[in-house]
Design brief:
The protein is of the alpha/beta class and 165 residues long. The protein is 24% helix and 28% strand. The model has no long low-confidence stretch (mean pLDDT 92).
């Protein structure tokens, strides 16, 4: 891939794509850490009251023994999950394993009426049957590369591409 897409331009597309997914009772929940950054800004840009939810996949990962607990934020859901319409947000959708772990974490807090997913980047490579309801862009990357959202001190988003270890 010759160039990494502009994350701020993708965020603008994400904001426009999330608007039609919103219902009166929709609760935004960002997956740590990139999704949590996105949801924080979306909550503000959509003019939604209160704080968005943040959810961690750490406790339900199938590679927990290898990865352990990350230093990222832990789950905080400032609403009743039971019967809620939840819109999960993440920076990059890849294998689907993080989404599986997050769904397990979410159901530890209750039973939502529905759960949908919006992502900044869908990079393919699914190992589980997971699909986003909205993706700002789709990229194809080699398995040897990792793509992640970064946030500058001023809040500006960028995407970083790294070789996996």
């Amino acid at each position: 891939m010759s160039s990494i897409p502009d994350a701020e331009a993708l965020y603008t597309k994400l904001l426009a794509g999330v608007k039609p997914l919103m219902r009166l009772d929709t609760r935004l929940v960002g997956i740590t850490s990139g999704g949590a950054w996105l949801v924080e800004r979306l909550q503000k840009d959509l003019g939604l009251p209160g704080a968005p939810g943040v959810i961690s996949s750490a406790m339900h990962r199938d590679d927990f023994a290898r990865r352990g607990l990350s230093a990222s934020a832990q789950t905080s859901l400032p609403f009743d999950v039971n019967g809620a319409d939840v819109l999960l947000l993440d920076d990059v959708l890849y294998t689907g394993r993080t989404i599986r772990a997050v769904l397990n974490e979410l159901f530890d807090f209750g039973r939502p009426a529905s759960v949908r997913l919006a992502v900044l980047v869908d990079r393919g490579g699914r190992e589980l049957p997971v699909a986003a309801d909205f993706a700002a862009t789709t990229l194809t990357l080699p398995n040897s590369q990792l793509l992640a959202l970064a946030r500058a001190a001023d809040g500006a988003f960028s995407l970083k591409l790294e070789e996996s270890k």
